[in-house]
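I hope you will forgive my troubling you with a question about protein structure. The record follows directly beneath this note:
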Amino acid sequence: MRGGRLKGPIGSPERPASALTFRLVLAVFGAAVCLIGAVLAVLWAHSASLTVVLGAGFLAACLNVYWVSRRRRYER
């Protein structure tokens, strides 16, 4: 492994493709599922505890989306 900045196009042997884009898609999907679940818990199930758990999951998923997007930006 050589040191310094990698040269070459992404996906080439000098600079392999990253899985961070796929992780970002999964993170956004997870946030959407938690948000929809929290809304349904409020409107349909009338469950305060389930709403709190899914709301906390939504906030954690949003933090994950932010973290992965920052990693993607740093990688470029």
Residues 4 and 20 are 21 Å apart (CA to CA). The chain has one domain: 20-75.
